[in-house]
């Protein structure tokens, strides 16, 4: 405790107070280092929860895990709290990327990507100079949004451990059956893909995964590093009033990391899929849509790719898709806004 007080006083004299020393509700998005943001709107408490990988300088706890900020207005955010810590006795030792929290059967489930480079896979990477190793989405569960979340099935990956996977998300089909949609890593395929695996009521895989599409199906995704690499990241699925299914996802193109949307007119996970243009570029990506407390759609993305900050956009739902309306610079305080500003 003495060390924390000393650090706080020292930082204050320097004009920068660590995030964990800030009073609740005083942080804003420009001061919140975050990657792969995921927002849950809790109507019961009238609170937004923003989940991202833990940063010890923000929570005061040096742990591989997930932290959560809270806000009432999307502008002023609380000091983040550690809601999940990767246990020392599990197979994974790094990651906690792309945390998502979903309500399922009266519990909150955390989907999070972890890995261990010291556990190589049998199949070598098709990309020269790269290697394959264990990387998977695992689940954790809690009774409340604030956790603490505990690993499900001891951290057993949802899909086979021989597959290099990441960014798993929960999707309910028209019959209400759960699926996990995820990215199949370019390190293992060269051209990354999206796939889905059926789940039972315990969110355990009950069938083989099936591929949805590969990243080169989108004309916006461009080969990287002169090696034909196509990145696929961050799938998020939404259905519009015409019954069609829409996937937000990210890749790399002519203008860096970007956000795009693909559409399945049939409304089925396995398409066929149509691929739209770049939605946001210049390092924008890994976004998700959420409903505000007053029932409007908003998009949150991070930008730039490194030293990322959260950016907020109003989104309009059309019968057959989604339309960006404007960046909410009065909320995210972005000094260099991008996209519609009307």
Secondary structure elements and their pairing?
Elements: H1 2-14, E1 38-42, E2 47-53, H2 56-59, E3 65-71, E4 81-85, E5 94-104, E6 107-120, E7 133-142, E8 150-151, E9 165-172, E10 178-184, H3 186-189, E11 193-198, E12 210-214, E13 233-239, E14 245-253, E15 256-264, E16 274-280, E17 285-291, E18 297-303, E19 309-318, E20 321-327, H4 329-332
Biggest pleated sheet: 4 strands, antiparallel
CATH superfamily of the domain at 218-342: Glycosyl hydrolase domain, family 43
| CA distance, first residue to last residue | 48 Å
- H and E order: HEEHEEEEEEEEHEEEEEEEEEEH
CATH-scheme architecture of the domain at 218-342: 5 Propeller
Radius of gyration: 20 Å
Tell me the number of strands: 20
Spans of at least 5 consecutive residues with low confidence: 1-16
| Discrete helix count | 4
The chain-level structural class is mainly beta
């Amino acid at each position: 405790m003495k060390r924390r007080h000393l650090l706080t006083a020292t930082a204050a004299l320097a004009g920068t107070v660590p995030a964990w020393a800030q009073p609740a509700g005083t942080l804003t998005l420009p001061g919140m280092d975050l990657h792969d943001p995921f927002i849950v709107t809790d109507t019961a408490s009238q609170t937004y929860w923003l989940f991202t990988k833990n940063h010890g300088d923000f929570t005061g706890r040096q742990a591989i895990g997930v932290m959560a900020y809270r806000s009432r207005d999307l502008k002023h955010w609380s000091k983040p709290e550690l809601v999940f810590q990767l246990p020392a006795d599990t197979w994974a030792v790094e990651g906690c990327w792309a945390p998502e929290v979903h309500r399922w059967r009266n519990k909150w489930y955390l989907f999070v990507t972890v890995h261990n480079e010291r556990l190589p896979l049998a199949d070598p990477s098709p990309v020269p100079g790269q290697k394959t190793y264990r990387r998977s989405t695992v689940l954790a569960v809690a009774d409340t949004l604030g956790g603490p979340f505990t690993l499900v099935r001891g951290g057993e990956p949802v899909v086979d451990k021989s597959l290099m996977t990441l960014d798993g998300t929960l999707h309910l089909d028209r019959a209400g059956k759960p699926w996990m949609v995820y990215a199949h890593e370019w390190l293992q395929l060269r051209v990354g893909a999206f796939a889905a695996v059926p789940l039972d009521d315990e969110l355990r895989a009950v069938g083989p995964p099936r591929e949805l599409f590969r990243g080169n199906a989108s004309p916006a995704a461009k080969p990287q590093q002169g090696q034909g690499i196509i990145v696929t990241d961050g799938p998020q699925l939404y259905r519009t009033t015409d019954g069609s299914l829409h996937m937000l996802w990210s890749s790399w193109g002519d203008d860096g990391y970007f956000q795009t949307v693909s559409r399945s007119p049939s409304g089925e996970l396995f398409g066929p899929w149509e691929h739209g243009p770049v939605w946001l570029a210049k390092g924008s990506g890994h976004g998700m849509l959420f409903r505000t407390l007053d029932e409007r759609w908003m998009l949150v993305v991070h930008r730039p790719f490194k030293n990322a900050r959260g950016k907020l956009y109003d989104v309009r739902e059309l019968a057959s898709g989604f339309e960006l309306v404007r960046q909410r610079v009065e909320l995210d305080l972005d000094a260099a806004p991008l996209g519609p500003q009307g």
